[in-house]
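Sequence in, structure out. First:
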Amino acid sequence: MPPGTPVMQGPLVIAGGQVISGGPGAPAAPAAGSPPSVAEQLEQLADLKSRGVLTEAEFQTQKQKLLGS
């Protein structure tokens, strides 16, 4: 790949019924077969919220699903 070519990193996250890429700077996907921990998923959701991809309501909904509340 030529230098400066953007590379998409990180796992896909389901948010509000849409598939959203983790995008550049997102943590790399875990090894195949091992799902990310709840803490890693919360970190990804927080990152998406801070970048304006998720609204506060979407963030809270997804967080509650992860925490099982």
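Second:
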Amino acid sequence: MKCVLILLLWVLPVSLFSQIDTVNYVSPELFGAVSNNLDAGHENTKCIQQAIDYATTSGKTLISSAGKKYYIAGSLRINGFVNIDFGKATLIATDTCKMVIVNNGVRGKWAGTIKNMQLDMNGCANCGIFCENAIKLKFEDIGITGIKSYSSGLCIQKGYEVFAENMHFEGGQNKAMGIVIRTHDCHFVDCVMIDCHTAVDCCGSNFFERIHAWMGRGGKWIDGSTFFQIRTGGPVFLHQCFSDTFDNAFDILSRTDLYISQHKNFHNMIMWKRDVEKIHPVLFHFSDERIAKGSNIVVDNSYLGGIVVNGVNLQRFSNVEQNSVKVSSSNVIK
């Protein structure tokens, strides 16, 4: 009987990995990960990392399914081509970490697709997805919640041709950030930011389409909030975007070329719960007069709404009177 048990224990792992080799996908459970277990954070980090590494080397797709929640206590690293379809399963951070670190940028090669994933930063992770170097990588149908102060849901440091489509970001603390980008030629489509004090922090020439961001929480985090911040570089292109109830719609920190088309700027008075004298949002905020005059900003076919109280618009078009913003074929509330 003992011999039979020993034989079974030896055969099961061999049989398991033989089974893996016959299909085109793997799951975290095949490597020992356990869902819906708060105490499994450290073990899950190791097991899911093994699953990612195997998927990377074998070319198989890493999958999971909705309803599964994997607690992790450290970073998961992607260092090669990978396809991940997580089926709306959730990764939940239990410690300060960059939850998913991507470093698979190889010139001229596709890096894969990561989709159908939920990340809960849980008010403790330093970043949801951190791209050290990513080239030709696509993110699709991803939700990132629980973003803490001075942390971002998605940060792209280096690379190009990163495509982010249908991503949702939700801040869990004041000063949370949605997208932070420090490189060029990346594309963002159909992204929603809720309660991200800075929805987009852009440095470089990039493309944004149908980005909708708003501040909620009863307006308690509005002060100093920014829909779109530009640090340097350009040109930057925005099309059919929606800035909803921000202190600054656009915050320009250096000379830039910015092209905005079919944009909507709107304010929800329910969120501005304060004395009228304390409501002073700005459409285009410049760091100084030199930057205001030296930038090239073009707005067309847009609706630039304001906050009108007793016939007076409390929103300023710009904090610098002499600026370079050119508006055409647009409805500007004055």
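Remark: The chain has three helices and 28 strands.
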